[in-house]
Amino acid sequence: MSRAVHVVGAGVAGLVAALALARAGRAVTLHEAAPVAGGRCRALPDGTDNGTHALMGANRAALRFLADIGAAEGWIEPEPAGLPVLDLADGAARRIAASPLAWRDPALRPPGLTAAGFLALLGMALPFTDKPVAEVLAKHPALLRGFVEPLTVAALNTPVAEASSARLGQVLRRLGGAGAARLLVAREGLGPNLVTPALAALQAAGVAIRFGSRLRAMTQADGRIAALHLGEDSLAVTEGDAVLLALPPWEAARLITGLKVPERHAPILNLHFAIDGVGPVRFLGLVGGLAQWVLVRPSGVSVTVSAADDESEEPVDTLAPRAWAEIRRAAAAFALPGAWPEAPPPCHAVKERRATPRHAVGFPPLAPRRPMRNLALAGDWTWPGLPATIEAAALSGEAATKVLLRLGPTA
Ligand SMILES: Cc1cc2nc3c(=O)[nH]c(=O)nc-3n(C[C@H](O)[C@H](O)[C@H](O)COP(=O)(O)OP(=O)(O)OC[C@H]3O[C@@H](n4cnc5c(N)ncnc54)[C@H](O)[C@@H]3O)c2cc1C
C-alpha cells in the first residue's frame, strides 16, 4: 500500500505539495480549515479575487505549478511594452521597464535613474549590508519615489522606511535574466485561473480533499507526530505515514511548541469596483496617491494598496471616491477604452490584515523544513530566499515534498 501523507492547508504551498506527493505515488489527503482552497490567494464568493496577484517571469516554481495544473495559458502579460505609471503629483505618465536589460532604451528607464542610482540598485542586489531601503536610496529621491518604492511596497509589503534592502536585493537579483521581469496576471481571476484547475488536477491525481477540516492540535510521541486532531475527528498517523503543514506562521506556531516564526505582519487593501465595458486586461501603476496598482479586467477594476497600515482602518465610503478619482486620471492619461463615469461604481473593500510578514531589516527566524521525523513544514514564510510571495510558497511546497519523499520506510 502507498504511504499516506496528510497535507494541512490548501494555500499555494499545500496545493503544490499535495499534487507533487500524489503524482509521486503517495496516498494524499488535503485538509483545509476554510470552505475553499487558495488561502491568501483565493477567489471570493462573488468571483472577485481576495486581492490582485501578479507573478513575474522569474517566478519559475509558480509558473511550473501553473503548467502542471494546465493553467499557464490563463496568466497573461498585460503590459508587454513596459508598465504604464502615472505620477499623480505632476501628471507625468510614462512606461517603465522592470528589467534592467530594457533600460538601454531611455524611454523605459525609471525616473531619476543615474549612474550613481544604478550602482545603489546594484549594491542592494549584491548585498553586504542590510539597511532600510529608504536609507540606501536617500541620495536618489526621484528613483526611490518613481521606481524603488512602488517595487518595494509591492514585493515586500513593507514601507520603505523599514523595508530590508537585503530582502529587496533578493527580488532585484532575479529581474536581470531574459524574460524574468515579465509581469503576469490572471486573465479572469484566481478562481478560474488557479484554484479551480488546481483542485481538478488534485482530484485527477487521487488526492482526497477535506474542506472545513481545521487542525486543532497534534499528538507527538517519540519525536514524531502520532495523531492529528481535525475538527471533531482524531486521525492516527501510523508508522510510515507523514504530515506536511502548509500553514500561515501564526497557525504553525500554535501547533508546534517552540517554533520561531515571523510575528509582525502587514495588511493589503484591495478595492473592487463593479463596472462593465472596460478592458482589455490592463495593469497600471500610480505614484503619490492612495491607489498603487490598478488591474482593469472586462469584469471590473481592482485597486491594490500594499503596506496599508493606515488605509485598512479607513471606511470604504471614503476610500472608494478617493481611489476612483485617481483611476479616472490614469484611464485618461493612458487612453483606456470604455466609459469612466465620474461617480464611483459600486465598490467593496477586502482588507487582508495579515497579508504577509513585514520584511523589515534583519533576517526572520529560519524555519526548519523537517522539525520532526515524519513532519515537514511549508508556507511562504518558510522560504528564506524570497519575500513571502506565491513563488516562495510554491518553492516551499516543492522543498517539503522532496524532504518527505526522501524519508525511509520507517519514518
Ligand atoms: C491581498 C494579497 C495580495 C497579494 N499579492 C501577491 C502578489 O501579487 N504576488 C505574490 O507573489 N504574492 C502575493 N501575495 C502573497 C501570497 O498570496 C502568499 O504569499 C501565498 O498565497 C501564501 O501561500 P501559503 O500556501 O504559504 O499560505 P496560505 O495562503 O495562508 O495558506 C494556508 C492555508 O491553511 C489554511 N489553514 C490555516 N489554519 C489551518 C488549520 N489549523 N487547519 C487547516 N487549515 C488551516 C488556511 O485557510 C489557508 O488556506 C498577496 C497576498 C495577499 C493577501
TrEMBL record:
Molecular functions (GO terms): oxidoreductase activity
Q: Where is the Amine oxidase domain?
A: 12-273
User: Could you tell me which Gene3D superfamilies the record lists for this protein?
Assistant: FAD/NAD(P)-binding domain, protoporphyrinogen ix oxidase, domain 3, Protoporphyrinogen oxidase, mitochondrial, domain 2
**InterPro entries documented for this protein:** Amino_oxidase, FAD/NAD-bd_sf, Zeta_carotene_desat/Oxidored
SUPFAM superfamilies recorded: FAD/NAD(P)-binding domain (SSF51905)
PANTHER family linked: BLR3003 PROTEIN, PROTOPORPHYRINOGEN OXIDASE
Protein name (database record): NAD(P)-binding protein
What is the species of this protein?
A: Neoroseomonas marina
Q: What is the lineage of its organism?
A: Bacteria, Pseudomonadati, Pseudomonadota, Alphaproteobacteria, Acetobacterales
